[in-house]
Amino acid sequence: MALPFIIPLVLTAAGSLAVGALSRQPEINRLKEQVRILQKEIETLRRAMQEQQRQIEELKIRYSTLKAWNFAEKQRTRGMTRGSLILHYGLRDYVELTVAQARGKTLKDDDLRFFNVFNAMINDQPVSDEDKAFLKDYIVARHRYQIDNLIPMNDQDQNSLVRLVEAA
């Protein structure tokens, strides 16, 4: 019978298997612990990534807000600059018309209306909204390129106005 020969073999194989499994158990435990640590690190990194994504979205919102605010400020400043240029070129036209009138030249209807309205404005007399719109339209029509491109009067223009007044 082969049975007595097989039983010790089976017992030896089972014993070897048990001894092998038990001898590898510390390594298995170490690997399981390493898997748990890695899973915790993955979760930590996932949370950090979500927080960074939230911060990126917040920064995008702030950037867009600042960009819009900058645009609004630029338009406001441009409007103030444009208004100042309109006033300066209006003053130039007023001085030129004043000198022309002093020299006895007859002013055209629009020139005369501009002169009278601008004169009333600089003398703190009430000016209607319609007249203010006329002043703006008159000045912008005559100096559109300079006003649209925000080109101020240069020193030469100012000096020529002074000489014009002195010669009158």
Strand content: under 5%
In DSSP terms (H or I, runs of 4 or more residues), the helix count works out at: 5
Tell me the number of strands. Answer: 0
Order of helices and strands: HHHHH
Class derived from helix and strand content? mainly alpha
**Low confidence ranges:** none
Overall description:
By secondary structure, the protein is mostly helical. It has a domain at about 80-165. It has five helices and no strands. It has helices at about 5-100, 110-120, 130-140, 145-150, 155-165. The longest helix has about 100 residues, at about 5-100. It starts with a helix and ends with a helix. The relative contact order is 0.07. The mean pLDDT is about 85.
Give the gist of this structure.
This protein has 168 residues and is mainly α.
